[in-house]
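Extended Data, record MAE_28990/MAE_18760 family HEPN-like nuclease
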Amino acid sequence: MSYGSVKSRSRSRFNEVQVYLNYISSLEPANPTESASLELKIQRGLFYVQLYAALEKTINDVVETTLILIASKSVKGVHYSPGFGVIAFSNKLRGLKDAGYNNFFNKSIEFFEEVRSSNITAINDSVFSTSLQNVWAKTIDEVYRSFGMKEFTLTARERATIDEIVDKRNAVAHGRESASAAGERHRTDVLRQKYSVILEIAKRIIDDMETFFSSQAYLKPVAKKYYA
């Protein structure tokens, strides 16, 4: 398992989207004032579904890969960086959340014992499996903060593009809007711009996760020498 494999799978996904977009472009009338056919509108609408799928799969893939690689290091609880604690101790945090009044102090003690422990703390590589089923811009923010990573900077345009893609995909996939209605507005020159924005964001996320792992940012600085 490696980031090279993640990048390869992501390229394959996005290449499929690009091929599909080229096909849509071939259906468009040369005159932009000419009305689009129903078939063309449907294809444009389905573009959002395919583009979102490439983004979601890439983010899930790179997050899961990073967590599996960290888990393979068999890190002791006391050696994890505080910023990575949300993930490292997610199971204990859930137990604390679900603890009733009579169990609160016992579960709290268990949590802090785990944080200070010299035992290997298992990493749950599916910790984001639910939250990453709808990848809004705020979802990416939450993932970065959970890892204790530096803020993922998004321009207003990038943030709006992510949320538009998710909203359009959900509208079509869940039946709130027909594919033809979702694809009625924009020609492929605009869709290509959206594609480029999402592709660039996906690449940045992979690069950031790779840097996070290779720099051992999930560890306290004093502990890095033990996991070289």
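Summary. The chain has nine helices and no strands.
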